[in-house]
């Protein structure tokens, strides 16, 4: 049994303009080489683009995109008896949100386009409408978990 204590969950501070924790979580994942002000600029431009394009509250679209891209189950490689099995595991909402944010940003980086802000806004709008690369990644993860359901007893 581990003697280490359980790490406390850190609650992120809300961002300065929208007073939203989800926006701050996204900014913290966008940051490259410590350039947080650039990450804020990218996200705020993406949010402005979403507002112009959809004529809806951009935070609602953002929240909807993250919720729709968040997976319920994932597969984890477990080594049992000399062979490695993909074991499906249910994941919590915070881990699901973290995966969704990672997938949304990765998908927007892969998109072809001019700037990261535009690519991110398109990916967020697509995810809110239930299509896009991040949603496909979620569906692929769910399919893998369903296919490996026989190994669920190895949890």
UniProtKB/TrEMBL annotation:
GO terms for biological process: translation. GO terms for molecular function: rRNA binding; structural constituent of ribosome. It is found in: Plastid, Chloroplast. It comes from the Eukaryota. The keyword Plastid applies. Residues 2-149 form the Small ribosomal subunit protein uS7 domain. Its main location: plastid. One of the primary rRNA binding proteins, it binds directly to 16S rRNA where it nucleates assembly of the head domain of the 30S subunit. Belongs to the universal ribosomal protein uS7 family. This is Small ribosomal subunit protein uS7c. It comes from Apopellia endiviifolia. The lineage of its organism: Eukaryota, Viridiplantae, Streptophyta, Embryophyta, Marchantiophyta.
């Amino acid at each position: 049994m581990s003697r280490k204590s359980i790490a406390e969950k850190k609650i992120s501070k809300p961002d300065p303009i929208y007073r939203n924790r989800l926006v701050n979580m996204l900014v913290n994942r966008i940051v490259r080489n410590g350039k947080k002000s650039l990450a804020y600029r990218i996200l705020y431009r993406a949010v402005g683009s979403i507002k112009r394009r959809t004529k809806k509250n951009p935070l609602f679209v953002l929240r909807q995109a993250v919720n729709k891209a968040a997976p319920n189950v994932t597969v984890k490689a477990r080594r049992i008896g000399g062979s490695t099995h993909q074991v499906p595991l249910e994941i919590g909402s915070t881990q699901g949100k973290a995966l969704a944010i990672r997938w949304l940003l990765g998908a927007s980086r892969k998109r072809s386009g001019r700037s990261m802000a535009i690519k991110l806004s398109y990916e967020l709008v697509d995810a809110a409408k239930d299509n896009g690369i991040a949603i496909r990644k979620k569906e692929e993860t769910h399919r893998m978990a369903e296919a490996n359901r026989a190994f669920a007893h190895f949890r």
